[in-house]
């Protein structure tokens, strides 16, 4: 600061002024002139340079410059003009007798400049986030937490610089002193540090993207990811409630991501019909002829045992889903018999819809099973169902018998 004061004195001497001759009236005039000059420079930048930059960016084919030189960025840069002007010109308005006041005003200008620089950095990071949100490769990456961490680091550096200005100490000396309290700082910023590390892992391993449908039972999350920030991951559940999850929990715990289902273009149908085992039998000649006429089986050769009605039903069900227009025929289709249980023989239908959307999927699933349940009696089979009160009716002796 002494060097600056000496250079200012030499400059004033060259134009015919002596700093020692400055009275209070001259100082007031000079200060008002400096304030007026900073105002005029800001006005020129706001009304001439900013519109010119807008016109230039509007003519370019690239879109990134529209974000980097948007109104927020230009206004943030405009806020830096007054403190820069004050810091450069204020030494001209003070003599050696007013160095203490000049020292305070220069400190205030520097602090103001640091604050406006932090605001510019935040606007710059917001613009970067908007650019990455539009980019095909980056838009699905959880980058918001990384930008927030960079902004937090910038705020920390700015805070240290402000402290160093206020106490007239070098910033490195303050950083050395903070090293002793690193454990306390890590405790204070534990969630932010863990969130940053988790965000990098989620992004690097492509584990999570905004828009993914995830399920995490531990936190009651079952819905779409709407935001991935430094400290929270917001999930909008299907009942429109919002669940917040710490990012590091997604790395340390297990969660289910349904993105693969959407990318494959289909949603799995995996449901069973339980067949009453007592209705499974070899087909009678009449049933064989009926099935052959309907095209469900080919006529058996002489000497071969007749087909089993359950096998005919499985072949029919597979042919039905294979020809259904809303079933995705590029993915697996299967009708299989599972381990018999006390509830009957499970016959599982396994296929995929041609859309991952929920409502069309449920409509298709209902349509398939409505049809198969209605067709089961055609094969001499019955669905296993536990008896209800209406299945028992009293006879003349008031003895309850089944209604079948």
UniProtKB/TrEMBL annotation:
Q: Where in the cell is it found?
A: Cell inner membrane
InterPro entries the UniProt entry points to: LSM_dom_sf, MscS_beta-dom_sf, MscS_channel_2nd, YbdG
Which UniProt keywords are listed?
Cell inner membrane, Cell membrane, Membrane, Stress response, Transmembrane, Transmembrane helix
Coiled-coil spans in chain: none
What membrane topology is annotated for this entry? Multi-pass membrane protein
Which SUPFAM superfamilies does the entry mention? Sm-like ribonucleoproteins (SSF50182)
Residues of the Mechanosensitive ion channel MscS domain? 191-259
Q: List the record's Gene Ontology CC terms alphabetically.
A: plasma membrane
The GO molecular function terms of this record are:
mechanosensitive monoatomic ion channel activity
Give the GO biological process terms. cellular response to osmotic stress
Transmembrane ranges?
28-49, 76-94, 100-125, 146-167, 173-200
> A Pfam family for this UniProt protein?
MS_channel_2nd
Could you tell me what this protein is called? Mechanosensing system component YbdG
